[in-house]
Design brief:
The chain contains 6 helices and 4 strands; from the N terminus they run ααβαβαβααβ. It is of the alpha+beta class. The N and C termini lie far apart (39 Å).
Length: 200
Amino acid sequence: MIQTMYGTPQGKSVIEAILARRSVRAFAPHQLDRNTVQTLLEAAVRAPTAMHEEPWAFVVVQNQGLLKQLSERAKPIFIEEMRHHDNKGAPHSFEHCTRQDFDIFYGAGTLIIICAKPSSPFVTADCWLSAENMMLAACDMGLGSCIIGSSVSTLNISTVKTELGIPQEYVVVAPVIAGIPKEETPATLRKEPLILAWKH
């Protein structure tokens, strides 16, 4: 059971945390303390890892000015990517990204960037598993989290990596925001598992 300064410990079972996790896109203006972030990172490094490589490395960004700069830089790049991929048939519209007041990090006070050296074919999968561990831990702690895939291209720009202290040989894989949810995020519907075969 994890105790934080943000509320009573949740003490969920693993399946309860999985079912309760939401992609939160509205955060209260509070910054996570260092101990809470450290707990999330401890959960992250307990993820499965191929050949015990443990490729992940982390950058924590809590500077509000820097987060705003990154958001402003990422928005036009992401919009151009979506236009390039001709996303007209996608279930979501990305036009909200063009608004001047739109924050790609949704007001979260903490961005945790999971990076790795591309040293094996399994590195990317390891980092995404690490992200899921971190998000489930956040859920159990009463926190919200969300993957911000729309920022990946920007975070991998050489000058941006230098500004963030990411060595050039590392690649940004999974940017995760975390913080205190501003409101309750409703559950979304999911399709039933598509079972292509079940051989007895």
